[in-house]
Amino acid sequence: MSQNTHISYTLFIDADDTLWENNIYFEQATSNFIQFLRHSTLSPQEVEAVINEIQHQLGYGFQKFTESLIATYRQLSERPIQDEDIEQIRTFGTQLANHPMEVLDGVEQTLRDLSHRHTLVLVTKGHAEEQQLKVERSSLADYFEHIIVLPEKHPEAYQQLLQQLHLDATTTWMIGNSPHSDINASRQAGLNTVFIPHAHTWRAELTALWLDGPGKHLVLQKFAELSEHF
Q: How many angstroms separate the Cα of 62 from the Cα of each of 21, 25, 59, 207?
């Protein structure tokens, strides 16, 4: 498939770590928290696993992440919990709201190019208001026909999107960096997929790619390479 194709596709495009940097800031906040916790027996990876498990239960976004850090601290702290400790932990989370918006290289030019030939739909997950604010700060909203924030990306959510937007799975592609949420879940719903790895993808999203199913699949190294295929 090349950019010379006359087929017009619907391209579902992920946001965090596909269009702009995101998880590097959560990684730094997690590192700051682990240093503050100073657990005597648990490794950083084990502490992070507890954070991820709690966050999966609470939801996504910096507010839920902050709640997850506080809950983890209450669960794992080996010293008496002080009010000032909780306030310090809150700063790890609130700093996430103020990090710079760093759109990845080639993203805006590629979106502009693709929008002339295809229908672009931003499909992300997380806290709706937080994600909408990121979209506004990125100045990329005008390239998308729809902006959709899901509480979770699973096969049923993708199937509902196909029905809601009256789309055919065979001409719909999901593009993203997360094997679990972007690739595997959408393929199980019958979509085609484009995997664009990111060095700092959230560990909880890392899993083996599921490449069964009827959909086509591409692996690209940069977002800008999409223009060579669509």
A: 14, 10, 10, 23
From CA 118, how far away is CA 8, in angstroms rounded?
A: 5
Tally of CB atoms within 10 A around 156: 12
Q: How many domains does the chain have?
A: 2
Tell me the H-state helices in 116-219.
128-138, 155-164, 185-188
Last residue of a domain, one of 57, 73, 98: 98
Residues 119 and 72 in one domain: no
Q: What is the pTM of this model?
A: 0.89
Q: 116 to each of 25, 40, 124, how far by Cα in Å?
A: 33, 56, 22
Q: What is the CATH number of the domain that holds 80?
A: 1.10.150.240
Q: Is residue 1 part of a domain?
A: no
What kind and span of H or E run contains 30?
Answer: helix 23-37
Q: What is the 3-state secondary structure (H, E, C) of 87-101?
A: HHHHHHHHHHHHCCC
Q: Detail the DSSP E strand segments found in the chain.
A: 10-13, 119-125, 146-150, 172-176, 192-195, 217-219
Handedness of CA 131, 132, 133, 135 (dihedral sign): positive
- Domain shared by 88 and 148, yes or no: no
Q: Which domain holds residue 171?
A: 10-20+102-228
Mean pLDDT, the chain cut into blocks of 10 residues (230 residues total): 70 97 93 96 96 90 92 96 95 84 96 97 92 93 97 95 96 97 97 97 90 92 96
